[in-house]
Structures are given as C-alpha cells and as structure tokens.
Amino acid sequence: MDRVSPLAVLAASNVLLHFQRLHGKSAFSIPQNTIMASGGGFTTFRWLCTIIGLIFYIGDIISDLLLTVQYFRGGHCTWAVLTLVFIVSGSLCIQIFSYAWFEDDKKNENYEDEDKPLSTGHLIGIHVLQIGIFTRYHHLLKRSYKALWLGQTQEDVQLRLFALATDLSMLRLFETFLESVPQLVLQLYIILEYNHRSILQYISMAMSFLNIAWATVDYRRCFRRSLPHVNEMPSRMPTAVYLLYKIFTITPRILSLTIFIMLSTFSPLAMAFIWLVGTIWAHLEKTDFCISPRLEHLYRATVGIILLFTFFNIKGENTKVHMTVYYILTLSQNIAAPIMLFLFKPESEGTDYFLPMLFFIVFSNSMGLGFLALYYSLLHPRGVSRVADEIDGMHQEPLSPPKTTRLDRFLQI
C-alpha cells in the first residue's frame, strides 16, 4: 500500500474543517486518526494536573483575600484596596471572556442529550457570582473523568477535552497577568519600600509565583495540543527549558518595575504608556479573536497588559523582529532600574537588598535569554504541519492552515 503524504492528509483535514465551519458545525467533531497523531490523549496525569491548577488558583485568591483583611486590620487601607482591586479586575476580566465563549460555543457546537449547554440566564448568574471559571473546571473534570474511566478515546472526544482545557488555561493566563503578576509587584514594593513583612505576604507572593509558572506552561502545552495541525510540546527537557525561559525573563521584569515605582510615584504612568503601546500594537495587528468589537477592544487591552511583562505572538505570524526589539527594550529597562536607583537614591546602596537585586536582574536576564535561544534553536517541537510562526519567525513553512476555530486565534506565548 502506498504511503499517504502528510501534506495531503493535512490538506484533507483543512477541507473538512472549512466545510464544517461553513455548515455551522464544530471543528472539534472531526473523527480522523491523523488529528491524534500530534500527541497523546487526555491522560490521568493531565486530569490530576487540572486539579493541581485549580488548587493553585484557589490558594492564590484565598491568600490575597486574607492579606487584604490583614492590611485593613493593620490600618493600611491603600495597600488593602490595591490588593483587592487586582483580585477583582482579574476576576471580572476572565468572567467576561468566559461568558462570551460559553455563548459562542452554544452557537457553534453540537451537544449530546446528556450534556446540554447552560441557558443564557444560568450563564449570566454564575458569571455575575464570579464562579464561571469554577463551572469550567467542573465541566472539564467531569467530562475528562467520563472519558478516562469509560474508555472514550475517540478523536472528537479527545479534541473537545483539550479545547475545554485550552479555554480554561487561557482564562487562567489572563488572570495570572491581571492579578498574580501585579500582586507580586505590589507586595514586593511594600516589602522593599516600607520594610513591612509578614508570613501572609510571603505566602501570597509564593502562590502568585506558582500561578505564573503553572499558568504559563499549562497554557503553552494545552494550546499546542488542542490544534490538530500543531505538534504537541514534548515534556521533560523542552518543558523545563521553556519554563525557565519564561520565569527568568518575567521575574527580573517584575523586580525592575518595582524599582521604578520606588523611584517615583509617577512610574505607573510610564507603565500605562507601555501598556498603551502594546494595546495599539495589538490594534494595528488587527487581531480578530472576538466576535464582538467591544470584546475585541477588551482583548487588545488585556494583550497590552501581558506585553508589559512578557512577549508573545499575537496572531501566529512572523515576529522574529518584534521579539528581538521587545527583549532589547525590556533588557535595557531592567538594567536601567538598579542604576537609576543608585543614582537618584544613593542611600539604597547601603541597604541589604541593593546588591542582591542588581546581581539577580543581570543574572536572571542573561539566563532567561539563554534559555530562550536554547529552546527555540534546539528544543522547540517541529512538524510538517505547524503554523507559520510557532518559533516566532525564526523559521517558516510554506503551508499554513487557515483559521477555523477560536483556538486558532488564541495568543501564542
């Protein structure tokens, strides 16, 4: 029997995807063996990882709420309000997107009789109560449990599970950069500027850090696995190197922004300007992630916030130049932070944190960029059917699948 060309299989898959989209059917209901070739199914380990992610999320929110209460009781109302604002802003954002995606899925997917979608009134209620993300966790854990323990290994079932996991992981990614990362900046500022320390502060910071690490890697893996034309991100060494690349570039960014706030209370205005630049870039890129124009504006504003702390590919296109410019600018800003602290606050040189901060910023940036180069040059998963810029423009294939689902428009970190 003649061997079928991978490009031919991919072309046939794309035709089926396009046909189903034109007829109002879900792109996740295509039963074809080639879809599962990009990686394994939804395993028990992935199910347990979902529970771990839920625990991290709950732990982060609870620790921040307890810290808010502690600040109020201690008379630090400004700190308490800021801590609470970050919690609320992150929660509101993900509830809005979660509701919109539920409504979108109701229009574009076929449901089994025992798995009917929630009514609009029910959806509004759970999202007003800020429990939309917990509903998504419940749906994913329930459906994946049935698939694992009832032996449902069909391709459409597996792809649907990974689609649910990717929706959830992107919401967690939004929440991480709207809540966990700003919380780290705030708590670090309070510790360094006011020498105010407590066990609950350290617990809150530790939970935020765990959330950043977990959400970043979990989203990357879920995103790659949920698309049939993209090879799954291998575990072990590539995952570890990718995690180190992100952690070693995000952490010094957090520290340098904290130093800028210590230098001047007007520094948040400069950060707002950087956010505006990122938002404008997303607008100029003409992202088409959301159906509603208003929701698209919110998405682009969220993109601007994430770009304040880390780089990602907005549309899956060639971004080698953008990535290079981004890290040159952020590296310059990160190095300038301790230098400016020394010049404008020379008394800081005698503190117990100045030299460790300076060393950490230089060391962490160097390690982060080193792991970035290592990952994208040697460890990044490659395949004949990956999208055009899965390695941020460092290599391109002549064939690029068309966008057919919401997952095809998800940001690529």
UniProtKB/TrEMBL annotation:
Pfam families registered for this protein in UniProt: XK-related (PF09815)
Major subcellular location class: membrane
Keyword Membrane assigned: yes
GO CC aspect terms: plasma membrane
UniProt entry tagged with the keyword Transport: no
Membrane topology value: Multi-pass membrane protein
Keywords tagged on the record: Cell membrane, Membrane, Transmembrane, Transmembrane helix
Residue spans crossing the bilayer: 45-67, 79-102, 198-217, 254-277, 297-314, 326-344, 356-376
InterPro entries, sorted: XK-rel (IPR018629), XK-related_scramblase (IPR050895)
Domain of life where this protein originates: Eukaryota
Subcellular location: Cell membrane; Membrane
Family: Belongs to the XK family.
Protein name per UniProt: XK-related protein
